[in-house]
Design a protein that fits this description.
globular; about 230 residues; two-stranded antiparallel sheet
């Protein structure tokens, strides 16, 4: 169950884009077309997975004082490999992603997983963490791009959708449309992931500061209650 939790938490509960609000530049910039969003997600997942594996393998070798420069070199190297592969085998996608493809090297999601998780855990767990976070990032990008492409371009993965193609809403293809869609998805995910607070779950017995907190008696509905 612990392995499954590591794998799945990055998809919804700790989604990099829709919960942690990381990597918003590529999420908004390349999400006008679902195909470009999917390509960016796959490329980022490859770099994330590769860097997590190497960082986990070398976690006891890399000195703590120089770990950040080491992460930069590793991530940049894998980003170059991904960029060269996409340029060689998917040149149209390479042109669509543009400058945001090499900018994977400075994606805060990859640095966060390397520092927070891979640097402290074994290889297999780091692989699961990278796959979960990469899948969550990809799904978020594709979700944003799907809404923007359907309403902004009247198509999906380049295939025209009847009626919508003749009645496109141009704002979804522009920057304001990206922010609108992102805000809506953030609100939906926040509603799903945040459970309502139950009064009986939050009292003095569960408060870590209960021992030092000054209790005050107030009258509530004719009786006394301590807070």
């Amino acid at each position: 169950m612990k392995k499954i939790k590591i794998l799945t938490r990055g998809i919804l509960k700790e989604n990099p884009v829709l919960v942690l609000v990381l990597g918003l530049c590529p999420a908004l910039a390349v999400s006008t077309q679902a195909e470009s969003a999917l390509g960016m997600g796959i490329a980022t997942t490859f770099v994330l997975l590769s860097s997590n594996i190497v960082v986990s393998l070398l976690r006891k070798v890399i000195p703590s004082k120089v770990r950040i420069p080491c992460y930069i070199v590793l991530i940049a190297g894998f980003t170059v490999l991904a960029q060269m592969a996409i340029e060689a085998y998917a040149y149209t996608l390479y042109q669509a992603l543009g400058i945001f493809l090499p900018l994977i090297a400075v994606n805060c999601i990859i640095f966060a997983r390397a520092e927070v998780f891979a640097n402290r855990n074994k290889v297999f767990d780091s692989v699961l963490d990278a796959l979960g976070s990469g899948l969550g990032f990809t799904l978020a990008l594709v979700a944003i791009a799907t809404i923007r492409e359907i309403f902004g371009s009247g198509s999906w993965f380049g295939m025209a959708i009847p009626w919508l193609y003749e009645n496109r809403v141009a704002v979804f293809s522009l920057a304001p449309g990206g922010f609108i869609v992102l805000a809506l998805l953030l609100a939906i995910v926040n509603k799903i992931t945040n459970e309502p607070i139950r009064p009986h779950e939050h009292d003095c017995s569960t408060c870590p500061s209960a021992a030092t907190c000054r209790k005050i008696k107030i009258e509530v509905e004719g009786g006394n209650r301590e807070y």
